[in-house]
Amino acid sequence: MARPKSEEKRTQLLHAAAEAIAQRGVGAPTAMISAMAGVAEGTLFRYFPTKEVLFNEMYLHIFRQLCDATGAVLDPSQPLLQRAEMSWNSYIDWGLAHPAWIKAVNQLGMTDILTEETRDIERTLFPDVGLMEACEKSELFEGLNIAFGDAMFIAIADATLRFAAQEPARADEYKLSGFKAFARIFLTSA
Amino acid sequence: MARPKSEEKRTQLLHAAAEAIAQRGVGAPTAMISAMAGVAEGTLFRYFPTKEVLFNEMYLHIFRQLCDATGAVLDPSQPLLQRAEMSWNSYIDWGLAHPAWIKAVNQLGMTDILTEETRDIERTLFPDVGLMEACEKSELFEGLNIAFGDAMFIAIADATLRFAAQEPARADEYKLSGFKAFARIFLTSA
Amino acid sequence: MARPKSEEKRTQLLHAAAEAIAQRGVGAPTAMISAMAGVAEGTLFRYFPTKEVLFNEMYLHIFRQLCDATGAVLDPSQPLLQRAEMSWNSYIDWGLAHPAWIKAVNQLGMTDILTEETRDIERTLFPDVGLMEACEKSELFEGLNIAFGDAMFIAIADATLRFAAQEPARADEYKLSGFKAFARIFLTSA
Amino acid sequence: MARPKSEEKRTQLLHAAAEAIAQRGVGAPTAMISAMAGVAEGTLFRYFPTKEVLFNEMYLHIFRQLCDATGAVLDPSQPLLQRAEMSWNSYIDWGLAHPAWIKAVNQLGMTDILTEETRDIERTLFPDVGLMEACEKSELFEGLNIAFGDAMFIAIADATLRFAAQEPARADEYKLSGFKAFARIFLTSA
DNA sequence: CATGAATGAGTATTCATTCAT
DNA sequence: TATGAATGAATACTCATTCAT
Fold it and tell me: With a threshold of 0.90, does the pTM exceed it?
């Protein structure tokens, strides 16, 4: 269908929305978003029918980028440990490089603004680092939801990110320690 | 004095605020909060000068309760593993018993509404499960911020909580698996 | 009738009201006034049934003081010119000594808060400097409202006061020049 | 551009503000003002960011009109006496024709709502009737602020206006007597 | 009589959305 | 299609007044 004219403006709006949420929370006015995107107030609504739709699409847009960064480095021929570490490092690096986006996504994620549909798509998106399989095999997570592994990955990574962002000088140490901690969960032979 | 300001109303407002945030996010109207607390709109502002102050105090109030629950079970004579498990279980149990409060605290925690002062007090509050000491001794976290351990505890517990809350029938399994995973980080002999 | 207990509190409230209006205009909250008077919020309403009544009584109270100061110096045995000058000087001196009260009275005077009754009493209060008689006799004001003279006195004095207050160092010069100007109106032989 | 902001609406808001202040004082609600202007409540704030700004701009707008009326009749070739009388008459006529505006301006003028900037501009605006020069030359006002003359003009005119407005049938008599009184100050040969 | 907690109507301002240009 | 002026419902906070203590 007639996707509105400028794909560029769409992207600008998406990014502006993320930036605005990072700065002012989900209460950030649409007028602020359109201003940051360099378009008129009304234009925003030609690309997204409501603020909520904009936020949902923004969430997936950013999450997709995060997943791209995290998944791009996956080499199926490598063993789980290596793959996991590559992904971990990419995740942390991406997070450090895009603090506003991380903040926006985390903030939005706590909210009921995200629709069930968005949550469904989100689950689809996270790259298969091998944790689901590891989850299934692990006597620790036997029988539990296979997304539990990914959730741990993200939970620990986000905590790590917070400390790394606060002490940039030692970001690498946090990155490494965080991963080692994470690895112990999945890669320790009982 | 004419009538002392009612400690009960204060508490009702605090709890109403938590409930309201859980239901409608930080944009929840003060009118909704006062209604839920069973007081007049203006009364809220005799107890808390602004919405932000209310939210900050609410955050600490709830966090304090959470810490009380988590820390009450600590028995210094027990070894770290046991202490950690007791606290872990209390945390998860408390979280399952108060889903709205957990949601409110998490939501508020992502926000810039919390002042630096609130954050400072928060750090003071979390009970000493022994993770800071473990952090310092661990070769994993050597030299890093000693709050990293507590952060991991909370990050993993919150992730666990989310899954447990979603599948209440297996809450105990999640609780146990979550703890085992956490324990591997701190209690694995390298 | 049972005038409420403390005449002192009544006066404090009156003065506090004047001060509050000077500082914040007629929108000054009753709570501010009671605080400035050193009494509880509710106490104000035991002395004055409404804010408007308080303001009306305050207006007359202050105006009465002003008139006392202006009229006290009148010596009926002196000729008009001297009497007028004495009064003029007292008015200006009193105004310079009580800037907040002048401000409050002027501010309130422009407002519809003052009742017709208050206005009536006010007219009664201004001391008879002799201007009414001078008015009647003057071919200038023949047949016009005899209060016109007092109004001129006050109008010119207030303007003088504004300049004198702004340049306190030359207050005396303004006082003298203002009076001379005023005198030309009434005391010039056509 | 979508639609230019309407200069007409701006003016309507300005006039509505004056009318509202005349009727209800500076506490007049913005909702009342927008209603009187025939626009939506929110529209007011697209033209003036705050009520205070609106009031300041209104003050200057009205004062400018008053000055235009008063100054338009000035003919530099005429002697001071004639010029002053022309201006005086215009002032009184304008005031009688726009009682609400006069009331609004006087009310606002007593208030701290007017900024220092507004006061500065105001001083700039009053037409040069020749009183400043007369002030300088007069032995009466020698060395004093040259604005003293204008202040007297306005003070006496406003007092005159009040009486004239109250007895419209004799407005002309007040107008003439007021001017004669004023003239004695400046135009009496010592 | 004095107090100050409680009230709820009232107010300035914001903001998502619409629509005339 | 893009714009931004216009809208009015929604919201945080204030304040005169009441009344239980």
Answer: yes
Whether residues A111 and B107 touch (CB distance < 8 A) is answered with yes
Q: What is the DSSP letter of B4?
A: P
Q: No. of H helices and E strands in chain D?
A: 10, 0
Helix (H, G, I), strand (E, B) or coil at B115: coil
Domain boundaries, chain B: 7-186
Q: How many cross-chain Cβ pairs, A to B, lie less than 8 Å apart?
A: 92
| Chain C interface mutation, best of D51, D59, D106, D112, highest count of C Cβ atoms under 10 Å | D112
Q: What is the DSSP letter of C26?
A: G
User: Which of the four pLDDT bands, split at 50, 70 and 90, describes residue B155?
Assistant: very high
Sign of the CA dihedral with C90 first, then C91, C97, and C101 last: positive
Query: What's the alpha-carbon Rg for chain B, to the nearest Å?
Result: 18
Phi-psi region of D38 (alpha: psi -120 to 50; beta: other; left: phi over 0): left
> For residue B150, what is the nearest residue in chain A, using CA coordinates?
A159
pLDDT given for residue D190 in this prediction: 43
Q: Is the dihedral of CA B97, B100, B105, B109 positive or negative?
A: positive
Which of the four pLDDT bands, split at 50, 70 and 90, describes residue A142?
confident
* Residue (of D161, D32, D28, B50) closest to C25 by Cα position: D28
Identify the chains in contact with A, defined as 3+ C-beta pairs within 8 A.
Answer: B
Q: Tell me how far apart the alpha carbons of residues A48 and A14 are, in angstroms, rounded to a whole number.
A: 10
Domain B7-186 bears CATH identifier 1.10.357.10: yes
DSSP annotation of D3 reads S
Lowest mean pLDDT among A165-169, B7-11, C66-70, C76-80: C76-80
Q: Which amino acid is at A107?
A: Q
Q: Which residues of chain B neighbour A27 with C-beta distances below 8 Å?
A: 26-27
- CA–C1' distance A100–F13 (Å)? 32
